[in-house]
Design brief:
The complex is a heterodimer of chains A (131) and B (395). In chain A, 18% of the residues lie in helices and 29% in strands. Chain A has 131 residues and is of the alpha/beta class. The termini of chain A are close together. Chain B is of the alpha/beta class and 395 residues long. Chain B has a 5-stranded parallel sheet with strand order 12-11-10-13-14, sandwiched between helices. In chain B, strands 8-7-6-9 form a 4-stranded parallel sheet. The radius of gyration of chain B is 21 Å and the shape is globular. The model of chain B has no long low-confidence stretch (mean pLDDT 95). Classes of the chains: A alpha/beta (131), B alpha/beta (395).
């Protein structure tokens, strides 16, 4: 199945989906050296986002979050690609400066359409997601 | 988005990698927020300077951009994590200092002026009414929009840098008339006299209406220092980018329809209580946002011939301090044992655990002292703070 969306950050990546219904703060909420979610009480607390297709509604928190994504990329623990319901500037800027493909505003709600563990291809350049 | 030929060339990489990356960021933001075009900016203020917040990743990013990036407009810098010259006097480690200097070097290489202040409007980055700018630093954004009447969104560090390296910002949000209209009426009942009074008002409004644009009535007068503190407070507690005060701020807007939200003396007392812990200050911190010459004049007057009993910092932009040196204010302050901290402040310096209880006249400083540094706080007038610095007691 192919879902069309909006391109935020270009590039193509494929991997295993990790889906959460909760917003993510990349500054303070994720350990940028290990790629593990550390926010207390978060659905993904203790889970690794490294190499995953990270599917979440939107970002939250400090503007330093953009740099945190960049740091994860440099450390080799960033998500392979991201899908948002509705992207906001912190994650958008983080994805662009880190060259992580990112698509949002899919034809269907990605939190429903995509299941954790599913094989997903994110085509940022072509503004689509292939399941 | 409609881009000019030059903007398309930047996006295609014809002006180098830094301009390309920057234009990609700006186009993505423009598309997210439905901007139709880019607009030239008069100036930029960049936040995200402290190595404490950036880490090695942020430093890597800045060094990568500095390989071929050059700013196209007047660009100033937010405070760093330390005094860039006298960092030893503030107890900063060698390792931290080395990294912090690299961050500032990367910015300088791109042509950013290492002003390292949150009050760019005191050191020559002064946009006129109606001018488009791209600033980060929430207090300065609020001051530029509200007090000066310039136009900027609340930029983050990377998007402000992108605006500097291209001279452009996407045309949305605060750049458009329709988004600058007030959304709530605030009627202030008590008479405001001091800087912390204005900080408490910012807290009270921020808690009541969040980031809506307020139309504020009932404030009879306000000087620059009071407005500076109010901007910092309402941006911290409400996320506010713009406010209008009838008879004080320059933009002519219509009073919105609807009931006024009243701020009475009880609201200000509640704000003060919320920002006062039961503690005896072992640290006094003034200059949040960075102190004006007039504030330094007053502090020098209060400290003349006295000695401080607890660690006392007054954060200030370096050029303002240099004028204070000539005016004799710095001498009076330093002779009393207080420190003038240039280029930095207590919000961004690595101070966690160094003090237990901080006294300040700034509502914004209270928030960050607690959240970032784990201090307890006391808010009071500059007179109360200096009294605490000298006596070691709070009254």
């Amino acid at each position: 199945m192919e879902l069309k969306g909006r391109k935020i950050s270009s590039g193509v990546a494929e991997g295993e989906a990790l889906v959460t219904s909760q917003p993510i703060s990349f500054y303070g909420g994720v350990d940028a050296d290990k790629g593990i979610v550390v926010e207390k009480g978060h659905e993904l607390e203790g889970k690794s986002i490294a190499g995953k297709i990270l599917v979440f509604p939107n970002g939250k928190g400090s503007t330093v979050g953009s740099y945190s994504l960049y740091r994860m990329k440099k450390n080799g623990v960033a998500p392979a690609a991201m899908v948002n319901r509705e992207c906001e500037p912190i994650v958008a800027v983080g994805a662009i400066i880190s060259s992580i493909p990112l698509v949002d505003q899919l034809e269907q709600d990605p939190l429903q359409a995509i299941k954790t563990g599913q094989r997903v291809k994110v085509d940022g350049t072509g503004a689509k997601v292939v399941l | 988005m409609k881009l000019t030929k030059e903007e398309q060339d930047m996006l295609a990489g014809k002006h180098g990698n830094a301009a390309k990356k920057s234009m990609e960021i700006l186009v993505a933001l423009g598309e997210i927020y439905g901007a139709e075009n880019m607009i030239p900016v008069f100036s930029v203020q960049i936040a995200g300077v402290s190595y404490h917040n950036l880490g090695d990743a942020g430093l890597d990013y800045l060094e990568e951009l500095s390989r071929d990036g050059k700013v196209r407009v007047l660009t100033t810098l937010n405070p760093a994590g330390m005094d860039l010259e006298d960092w030893r006097k503030l107890g900063i480690s060698e390792d931290f200092a080395a990294k912090q200097l690299k961050v500032v070097d990367a910015f300088s290489k791109m042509g950013v002026i290492p002003s390292c202040t949150c009050t760019p409007y005191f050191v020559g980055n002064l946009p006129r009414f109606g001018e488009h700018i791209a600033w980060s630093e929430s207090s300065a954004v609020c001051f530029a929009n509200s007090v000066l009447g310039a136009r900027t969104n609340r930029e983050g560090g990377p998007s402000a840098l992108a605006a500097a390296l291209t001279g452009r910002t996407p045309n949305y949000g605060m750049h458009l008339d329709k988004n600058r209209q007030p959304q709530a009426i605030i009627k202030v009942k008590p008479k405001l006299k001091t800087v912390p009074d204005f900080g408490e008002l910012g807290y009270a409004i921020g808690k009541k209406i969040g980031n809506k644009i307020p139309f504020i009535t009932g404030v009879k007068s306000a000087n620059t220092e009071q407005l500076k503190s109010f901007c910092a407070s309402i941006a911290t507690y409400g996320g506010t980018a713009l406010f209008h005060i009838k008879g004080i701020t320059p933009e002519r807007v219509k009073k919105p329809a609807g009931e006024a939200v009243e701020i009475n003396s009880g609201d200000l007392e509640a704000a003060r209580a919320a920002m006062n812990d039961d503690c005896v200050p072992d640290f006094v911190s003034l200059g949040c946002p960075h102190a004006s010459l007039n504030e330094l004049r007053r502090i020098a007057e209060l400290l003349k011939g006295k000695k401080v009993a607890v660690e006392t910092w007054i954060a200030v932009a370096r050029p303002v301090k240099e004028l204070a040196d000539k005016a004799g204010y710095s001498g009076a302050i330093e002779d009393a044992g207080a420190k003038l901290a240039c280029d930095t402040c207590m919000v961004v310096a690595p101070l966690k655990g160094r003090f237990k209880c901080m006294a300040t006249d700034s509502a914004k400083a209270c928030f960050y002292a607690r959240g970032t540094n784990n201090f307890k706080v006391r808010i009071g007038t500059v007179e109360q703070c200096i009294k605490a610095a000298v006596s070691g007691k709070w009254s």
